[in-house]
Design brief:
Layout (H helix, E strand, L loop, with lengths): L1 H40 L5 H5 L11 H31 L5 H14 L3 H19 L8 H25 L3 H9 L4 H12 L1 H15 L4 H5 L18 H9 L4 H36 L1
Length: 288
């Protein structure tokens, strides 16, 4: 008995040590990425970065790219959120344990892992090219097209999260509501979604973090712009696209701006991830 106990203790210690080591390695890489982006871009991290538009040389900034990224990301998340929440709700409450539901979940997982450049090419084919034909050959790259491409990337994340969060709601809550004569639609909207609200919000925030650093889809859709543009129907700059463009430039000043933009994007994604964890932890505390 003592030998079995010692073996279990040793196994537990090894597993715990490997888990701690993996965590430290992940945190080490995160700290390394943050330090490297800060070190390389610290010369461009000044007020001009947030107040001036993109221009060649050290006098330029990234204000138009930041505004463009914000607008495009908001368009993408505004399109994906209602569709994703409704689709996830249907999967969890109406298609659960059905062949159709399992098939859709499988296809959603495939879409979740699809290359982002494929999404960009798809939106380029169905949005940009038809609009170009209607305008007699004038290119119609736009921030809206970029938002549609990002929505296709965010959609499977929101569907998967909503589905999982609703399926975690105890079945006794459904049975209690149905026994009182509550209709299924009212049960879903007013009880189940409210119970899983923090998890769904977390999924939306994670989807927003997922799309905020995408570059390839925007090269085929939003294209880019060196001026401050707030109309999503025009070409629009974005931080990932500007980072890609400046990283390929031979000038050191442009490289510094690219690193500074990368640091801003990294911090934005990190803050969104922390916000999603905060929302989820608050929900757990309130339930406890």
């Amino acid at each position: 008995m003592s030998a079995l106990y010692l073996r279990r203790r040793l196994t537990n210690w090894i597993a715990l040590s490997l888990s701690v080591l993996a965590t430290l390695i992940g945190l080490g890489f995160l700290a390394w990425i943050l330090w490297e982006t800060l070190r390389q871009g610290i010369s461009a991290l000044n007020l001009h970065l947030f107040t001036k538009i993109t221009a060649y040389g050290a006098d330029g900034g990234l204000s138009n790219a930041m505004v463009g990224s914000l607008i495009i990301d908001l368009i993408g998340i505004a399109i994906a959120t209602p569709i994703g929440v409704l689709a996830g709700t249907w999967l969890a409450e109406y298609a659960n344990r059905t062949k159709l539901g399992e098939t859709i979940r499988f296809l959603n997982d495939i879409l979740l892992s699809a290359p982002s450049i494929v999404m960009g090419l798809f939106v380029y084919t169905i949005v940009v090219l038809p609009s170009t034909a209607l305008t007699h050959g004038n290119t119609t790259f736009s921030g809206f097209a970029g938002g549609v491409a990002l929505a296709l990337i965010a959609l499977p994340v929101i569907v998967r999260t909503t589905d999982e969060m609703l399926r975690l709601v105890p079945s006794t809550l459904r049975e209690a509501a149905l026994s009182l004569g509550v209709p299924q639609w009212k049960l879903t909207l007013q009880i189940l979604i409210r119970a899983a609200r923090s998890g769904i919000i977390t999924g939306v925030l994670l989807a927003l973090a997922r799309i905020s650093g995408e570059t390839a889809p925007l090269l085929f859709t939003a294209f880019g712009n060196n001026f401050m543009v707030v109309n999503p129907m025009n070409k629009m700059a974005s931080l990932p696209q500007i980072i890609y463009q400046y990283a390929n430039d031979p000038g050191d000043a442009m490289h510094a701006l690219a690193w500074a933009g990368a640091f801003v994007v990294t911090m934005f994604v990190l803050l969104l991830s922390l916000a999603s964890r905060l929302v989820l932890s608050r929900n757990k505390v309130s339930h406890d």
